[in-house]
């Protein structure tokens, strides 16, 4: 069952205009992506991919067929070249089962007024120190991102909220230890996932998380760096997001983080078999064309452009 709500009729018209989507574009784009899969022996068979996933890629790339082809290829190849990030496909089994003890990863059900999908990353209060594993958190984030493709509706773009008020010094040290996984996931998010990053809000960014924030900002281009918003208090989010869509812990009207987290754990289980099968279909990939593409060695990444 889908956890994500779509746009209103007024929002739908506005979003399609912003994306440059005209009647018949989606159908032509799906045919184009299916033809690419049929012609490329390294990609899954066309009949193994649901139309909806192709549609999400097309809209995430503003109906640019070439960009959608490149991103979908990168999305598939990532499972071969970054096997360590995609090997675990359940949030209820180790090692990912411990992630929910220290981090909530929640795409919110409702869209913002302008049609953005908001995903929250919230460090839980009172988390156990021994549960913190940043590399596992990265894998969990990618897993939920994969699962979200099944449910995503027509959106204008993405907004992220990182709530770091509860971070302790020990977690900051763990982030430094997981820097390679973080760096790779950020570049995958830009180069292999159909998202249009519009805003990144960071709450409670004390000095001890400054290095982590700088790491994330160093991996993106100047346009994205200018979309960061820093907040001292949770209450400041209400100046940027309507209360109807924020969880109740933040003064909003949406369900609690505990409820939303459990719903996403269940949703991941529902699509678990498909995701595992998809990975198996993507176990062979051609050699990278360039030494500095997103699959190169750590430290050799190029800064990818996004809208």
Automatic annotation (TrEMBL):
Recall the GO molecular function terms of this protein's record: phosphatidylinositol bisphosphate binding
* Xref: InterPro entries: CRAL-TRIO_dom, CRAL-TRIO_dom_sf, CRAL/TRIO_N_dom_sf
Among the Pfam families in the record, one is CRAL_TRIO
- Gene Ontology cellular component annotations, sorted alphabetically: membrane
Q: Which residues are in the CRAL-TRIO domain?
A: 93-258
User: Per its UniProt record, what PROSITE patterns does this chain match?
Assistant: CRAL_TRIO
The name under which this protein is listed is CRAL-TRIO domain-containing protein
What is the originating organism of this protein? Pieris brassicae
């Amino acid at each position: 069952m889908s956890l994500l709500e779509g746009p209103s009729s007024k929002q739908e018209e506005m979003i399609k205009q912003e994306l440059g989507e005209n009647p018949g574009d989606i159908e032509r784009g799906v045919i184009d992506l299916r033809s690419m899969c049929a012609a490329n022996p390294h990609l899954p068979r066309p009949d193994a991919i649901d139309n909806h996933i192709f549609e999400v890629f097309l809209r995430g790339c503003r109906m640019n067929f070439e960009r959608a082809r490149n991103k979908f290829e990168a999305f598939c190849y990532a499972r071969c070249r970054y096997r360590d990030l995609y090997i675990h496909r359940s949030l209820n089994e180790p090692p990912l089962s411990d992630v929910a003890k220290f981090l909530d990863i929640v795409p919110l059900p409702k869209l913002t007024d302008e049609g953005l999908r908001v995903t929250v990353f919230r460090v839980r209060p009172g988390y156990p120190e021994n549960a913190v594993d940043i590399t596992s958190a990265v894998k969990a984030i990618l897993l939920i991102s994969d699962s979200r493709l099944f449910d995503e509706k027509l959106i204008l773009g993405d907004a992220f909220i990182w709530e770091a008020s509860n971070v302790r010094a020990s977690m900051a040290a763990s982030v430094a230890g997981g820097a390679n996984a973080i760096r790779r996931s950020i570049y995958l998010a830009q180069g292999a996932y159909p998202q249009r990053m519009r805003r990144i809000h960071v709450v409670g960014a004390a000095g001890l998380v400054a290095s982590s924030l700088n790491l994330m900002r160093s991996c993106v281009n100047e346009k994205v760096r200018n979309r960061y918003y820093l907040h001292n208090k949770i209450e400041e989010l209400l100046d940027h997001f309507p209360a109807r869509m924020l969880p109740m812990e933040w003064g909003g009207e949406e369900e609690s983080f505990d409820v939303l987290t459990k719903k996403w754990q269940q949703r991941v289980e529902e699509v678990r078999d498909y995701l595992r099968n998809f990975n198996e279909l993507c176990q062979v990939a051609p050699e990278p064309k360039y030494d500095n593409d997103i699959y190169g060695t750590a430290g050799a990444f190029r800064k990818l452009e996004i809208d």
